[in-house]
Design goal:
Blueprint: E1 4-9, H1 16-30, E2 38-43, H2 49-55, E3 61-63, H3 82-87, E4 92-95, H4 98-103, H5 108-120, E5 124-129, H6 133-137, H7 141-153, E6 164-168, H8 182-199, H9 202-207, E7 210-213, H10 221-225, E8 232-235, H11 242-250
Parallel strand pairs: 1-2, 1-8, 2-3, 4-5, 5-6, 6-7, 7-8
Helix pairs in contact: 1-11, 5-7
Bound molecules: 1,3-dihydroxyacetonephosphate.
1,3-dihydroxyacetonephosphate binds near residues 215, 235 and 237.
């Protein structure tokens, strides 16, 4: 059975002290929560990863990275490698976030290299993709999503998909307060699963967790998560408040 996953992408937020405080509050909020078949994930900034790992040692929260370079090591000023992340105990990485595509020129080519490096280093990858507003308005959204998946993931062997988590994040819904409706999310997630099934097979498609991201809040999480092909969420703004994030976790 595929896993439910609620992941908080903290983006460029939280100092060391704020990181410690938020984890402490989250730990308290989640203490009594029954989490069968569910992963709860947070992605703090690189500088706070090690502290976050220490502070989550005795609870269910997993700490993951927001990005990673594809090279093993070398002259890549400001970058972080798979080996470095592994050495501090990080085993999962978010790749392909639309903010990285938009502001840091990540392309399908560079993302293919990153995903391949991550898989070769036994990471789980939360792979983000999704259409822009203009694509949806021109009814090209299914095509865009299919191309994003094909260009980066569809050379992978079937076996690699046990380490892939998909995160559909329509760009027009990120940080805008404009959520895709639960039906829009379900429609796209079913399309994604069918696309995986055609390329690989139905069993593989059924096994992959597909998360929705884009203005998920405590007041809409339950409806979105109730859809059969939505296996959880990738949460931005609401993951920065312990009460909101834990309410979203409880909605899964
Ligand atoms: P918001 O939840 O703030 O819209 O951000 C979504 C996101 O980008 C998660 O990666």
């Amino acid at each position: 059975m595929r896993k439910n996953i609620v992941a908080g992408n903290w983006k460029m937020n939280n100092s060391l002290d704020q990181t410690k405080a938020l984890i402490e509050d989250l730990t308290t909020e989640l203490k009594e929560v029954q989490l069968a078949n569910t992963r709860v994930i947070i992605a703090p900034s690189f500088v706070n990863l090690q502290q976050a790992i220490q502070n989550t040692e005795n609870n269910v929260i997993e700490v993951v990275a927001q990005n990673m370079h594809y090279a093993k090591s070398g002259a890549y000023t400001g970058e972080v490698s798979a080996e470095m992340l592994t050495s501090i105990g990080v085993k999962t990485v978010i790749l392909g976030h639309s903010e990285r595509r938009a502001y840091f020129n990540e392309t399908d080519e560079s993302l293919t290299e990153k995903v391949n490096t991550a898989i070769a280093n036994n990471f789980d990858v939360i792979f983000c993709f999704g259409e822009q507003l203009k694509d949806r308005e021109s009814e090209n959204h299914f095509n865009i999503v299919e191309v994003q998946l094909k260009n980066v993931l569809f050379e992978l062997p079937a076996d690699a998909f046990k380490n892939i988590i998909l995160a559909y994040e329509p760009v027009w819904a990120i940080g805008t307060g404009k959520t895709a409706s639960a039906d829009q999310a379900q429609e796209m997630h079913l399309f994604i699963r069918n696309t995986l099934s055609k390329k690989y097979d139905a069993k593989l498609a059924e096994s992959v967790s597909i998360l929705y991201g884009g203005s998920v809040k405590p007041n809409n999480a339950e409806e979105i998560f109730s859809k059969p092909d939505v296996d959880g969420g990738l949460i931005g703004g609401a993951s920065l408040k312990a009460k909101d994030f834990s309410a979203i976790v409880k909605a899964i």
